[in-house]
């Protein structure tokens, strides 16, 4: 559930037209954990992200990252290293799918 004041603010922003912008959090140009704080205040911009806090299975992760920026940084770093080890197929070895749910 989204905070009602935030929902009202988003409606006003969206009414401004195609050039309107809404940052994910107040520190839009800084890499930090404030994004997780917005979720715990029910002011997550995307429904899918806000669900991370709404769902009891993932709420503790959101709270952990919101209260412990060092933990967020460490987990993020480890995830980036893990992703860097993926065997990405390039050139003729791989394909760009026209529809992500099926092979071309």
From TrEMBL:
Name any one GO molecular function.
Answer: metal ion binding
Q: Which reaction does it catalyse?
A: 2 a phenolic donor + H2O2 = 2 a phenolic radical donor + 2 H2O
Its GO biological process terms?
response to oxidative stress
Q: Where does the chain bind Ca(2+)?
A: 25, 27, 32
Co-factor(s): Ca(2+); heme b
The UniProt record lists the Plant heme peroxidase family profile domain at 1-104
EC number, as in UniProt: 1.11.1.7
Entry's Pfam families? peroxidase
| The organism's place on the tree of life at top rank | Eukaryota
Q: Which Gene3D superfamilies match?
A: 1.10.520.10, Peroxidase, domain 2
- EC main class here is oxidoreductase
**PANTHER family reported for this sequence:** PEROXIDASE 55, PTHR31517
Q: What is this protein called?
A: peroxidase
According to its UniProt entry, this protein's organism is: Linum trigynum
Taxonomy of origin reads: Eukaryota, Viridiplantae, Streptophyta, Embryophyta, Tracheophyta
